[in-house]
Amino acid sequence: MCEERVKMRKQLGLLEGVAIILGIIFGSGIFISPREVIEKTGSVWGALSVWAACGVLATLGALSYAELGTTLAQSGGDYHYINEAYGSLPAFLYLWDANLVFVPSTNAIMSLTFASNILQPIFPNCTIDPLCRKLIAAVTICFLTFINAYDVKFTTRVQNVFMFTKISALVIIIGGGIVWMAGGGTEHFEDGWAGTKPSISDWSVAFYSGIFSYSGWSYLNFMTEELRDPFVNLPRAIYLSLPLVTAIYLLANVSYMAVLGPAGVRASEAIADFAVLALGWMRWAMPTLVAVAVLGGLSVHIMTSSRMCFAGARNGHMPELLAHINVKCMSPMPSLVFLMLVSLIMLVPDNLTSLITYCTVVESFFTTLSCSAVLWLRYKRPVLVRPIKVSLWMPIVFVTTCLILLVVPIVSEPVAVVAGALMTLAGVPVYYLLVQSKPKVVRDISVKFTHVCQKLFMSAVEDKEE
Fold first, then answer.
1. Which of 20, 29, 83, 323 is close enough to 313 for a disulfide, judged by CB 3.0 to 4.6 Å?
2. pLDDT, tens digit, 9 for 90 and up, residues 135-192
3. How does residue 280 score in pLDDT terms, banded at 50, 70 and 90?
4. More confident residue, 294 or 425
5. How big is the CA angle at 212 (ends 210 and 217), to the nearest 5 degrees?
6. Partners of 12 in the beta sheet?
7. How far apart are the C-alpha atoms of 40 and 209, rounded to whole Å?
């Protein structure tokens, strides 16, 4: 009887693919971003138009990624596409930013959001101690890392449950809004453009907040190698997920506006006040449903981002150890543990807002660069086999819109832009020292450390295709 090959299994179908995309997108954004969008646009119809436009933009980006994901059918997502289109250094800089800032800071924020919502119904009249929040957030990150490392199939099954719970929470919000409007609560839509702000920079910030709530549509591409029949299931998961997300987000925001009005959404946490006004006795259930929604998003984020780290290590852009797979569970355990440790460090600061501000522009730049790979590869490698070939206007519109949105923060948030650029450029000397040249002392230390961790994680290098 032959031994099982050390390789991540193809065990994700269409339902799991949809659950991964919805699990990432339906995170905390829809519960916290409406306030920022209405604040920057100034009017009901202005805010709703931003949510609709962001949905269209995300769909165009996702369709472009469907071409990339089926043409360059390896795990790694943005990292893999940037590496194939633009070379080693830009791909490394993406990994540098993602693994040290984007991924762990997002994990920290989502885990803290989960802790706040799970504690709120337990201690409704008490101030939550920050240390308590952080401890619960840390335990949550560690637990989800464990189940992701132990059994990928079990994790995806749990993710299916999370997906339906999230949709249920949003359906409850939409239902509450429909009942409210059926009772005559439509006055906030009668002069819906009143108060619209003329500032382009304000509207660009509103777009960023909306896009943040849609972010995650590209994360299934990180796990292409684990999808069954990826040429079919990857695009189908995208086609099903994005229109559903756009419709649900629009209807949820219509409900927020109907019940709270623009002033109410600006003044407080939308989900909390909405639950009190529209849902009656069910208001006590909403924090729990939001907590479950965020927990599911965090689980998927941990799972998918580890594949990006794994793909980078496999190409020599990260320490060799991170390209190893646990021989029993067939999961990238070293990558999962590495990202867990960096995420726990991100819980130490009391305020992550400034860090996230720095990252937003840089992350948007790399997303734009990834999508532009569709255009560059059409020119550079025209004979490349493309199972799915989107119309060129889709990536052109997406890239052009994102470039315009990137220009505005240079004027409105110059400190954030400079800080993000410096943070990225700091990876250049690291690349030339540790990736390209890799001195002998570094190689020796890396080999010894890898051997120790191989025994600790029971891991080995992935078997090559025969």
1. 323
2. 999 999 999 999 888 877 777 777 777 777 778 878 888 888 888 888 888 888 888 8
3. low
4. 425
5. 105
6. 227
7. 10
* b/e sequence 7-40, b meaning 16+ C-beta within 10 Å: ebeeebebbbbbbbbbbbbbbbbbbbbbbbbbbb
Identify which of 252, 110, 242, 238 has the alpha carbon closest to the alpha carbon of residue 169: 252
Three-state secondary structure along the chain?
A: CCCCCCCCCCCECHHHHHHHHHHHHCCCHHHHHHHHHHHHHCCHHHHHHHHHHHHHHHHHHHHHHHHHHHHCCCCCCHHHHHHHHHCHHHHHHHHHHHHHHHHHHHHHHHHHHHHHHHHCCCCCCCCCCHHHHHHHHHHHHHHHHHHHHHCHHHHHHHHHHHHHHHHHHHHHHHHHHHHHHHCCCCHHHCCCCCCCCCCHHHHHHHHHHHHHHHCCCCHHHHHHHHECCHHHHHHHHHHHHHHHHHHHHHHHHHHHHHHHHHHHHHHCCHHHHHHHHHCHHHHHCHHHHHHHHHHHHHHHHHHHHHHHHHHHHHCCCCCHHHHEEECCCCCCHHHHHHHHHHHHHHCCCCCCHHHHHHHHHHHHHHHHHHHHHHHHHHHHCCCCCCCCCCCCHHHHHHHHHHHHHHHHHHHHCHHHHHHHHHHHHCHHHHHHHHHHHCCHHHHHHHHHHHHHHHHHHCEEECCCCC
CA angle at residue 289 from 287 to 291, to 5 degrees? Answer: 65
Which CATH number, 3.40.1190.20, 1.10.10.10, 1.20.1740.10, 3.30.565.10, labels domain 14-461? 1.20.1740.10
